[in-house]
Specification:
Blueprint lengths: L1 H23 L4 H28 L1 H4 L2 H17 L4 H40 L1
Helix pairs in contact: 1-2, 1-4, 2-5, 4-5
Length: about 120
């Protein structure tokens, strides 16, 4: 449960606080450039990292990609305009990327543990 709250707090920082800083601290083109970096670089990379982290303990952290995408949607709607449909597409894309990374991480973990068990059994024989 501790990891869930830690990742939720990080998600709130990345998906809500950074857009807020983009709007409130930076002015003009700097704000837009920073926001575009968030949309196309930082948020997708964060979604992948979050997905891999959730995949390590998928039974407890499976909800993290959904929470992160919802936080993104709330943050952008608060600071960029409520109901903007394009942000739903971005949230869906971040969710999809996170889910793929989560299942890949879980699959790799399962595969690694199976290989380790089979090697242990071979050495025991």
């Amino acid at each position: 449960m501790k990891k869930f709250f830690m990742w939720t707090a990080i998600s709130a920082g990345v998906m809500v606080l950074l857009p807020f800083l983009s709007i409130s601290v930076l002015q003009g083109y700097g704000s837009m450039a920073f926001y575009l970096i968030l949309l196309y670089i930082a948020n997708p990379i964060y979604s992948i990292v979050l997905g891999f982290a959730a995949g390590r303990n998928i039974s407890q952290l499976w909800i993290l990609p959904i929470v992160s995408s919802l936080l993104f949607l709330c943050g952008t709607w608060i600071f960029m305009g409520f109901g903007e449909g394009l942000f739903v597409i971005y949230a869906g894309a971040y969710l999809l990327v996170s889910m793929i990374a989560m299942f890949a991480s879980s699959w790799l973990k399962t595969r690694k543990s199976r290989n380790h068990k089979s090697r242990s059994a071979d050495h025991a024989s």
